[in-house]
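Standup, Tuesday
Yesterday: got the pipeline producing structure tokens again.
Today: sanity-check two examples.
Blockers: none.

Example 1:
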Amino acid sequence: MAFLDYVKLTGGFDATAKIMLYVTLFFALLILFMFKSFLRLKFFLSWWAFTFPTAAASIAFLRAFEFNGITFFLFAGAAGFCYLMRFYRHRGLLHGKRRCGAAKFACLSDSF
């Protein structure tokens, strides 16, 4: 998010933006290697700690591709998006099979 805000404020892709983008890449790789540990957990509200940074990194990589045209950033952004969709599909969130944390109540799929 820092990269996206900085680029929006300055309107350019300078050394500071590159540092922020590469820090984002580092954290995206950390999340990538933690993927299997997330699959073993039930769905809880705290999953935003996984999905939000992945989505933000995908947007940041696609924005970096707009600025400098390096295809690595295009593929990284698209891969992050596909990664999220695979994650949601695997967890059944796209098919209306929402799982509530520890509660035994059915989640309302009509509320979304």
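Example 2:
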Amino acid sequence: MVALGVFSFRNLFLDVGILFSFGIIGYFFKRYHFTLVSFMIGLFLGRQIDNEVYRFVALFGNDPWAVFKRPITVGFIILIIVTLTFWVRGLLKKRAQDSLQND
């Protein structure tokens, strides 16, 4: 019924193929417990990311390490490492407390 509605909108079988392909993608997302948010971010921000990659290549050439020579990038990397360290440490503490309470 949905395929008939999709086909009747523009009379293109391509639209029916797109419908079924998104249905298959949705099935695998549900089966493997992917979140819809990650798909939406990739779908809507994909073109912008491509544009930024082109801009990066225009600015820095083919040297991907050129970004890490900037102090703001180093600061962000340090902040990310510290944040992840505290997050993992909190998870390990919680797991240790849970195992002590279960014993």
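Quick observation on example 2: DSSP finds four helices and no strands in the chain. Residues 56 and 64 are 9 Å apart (CA to CA).
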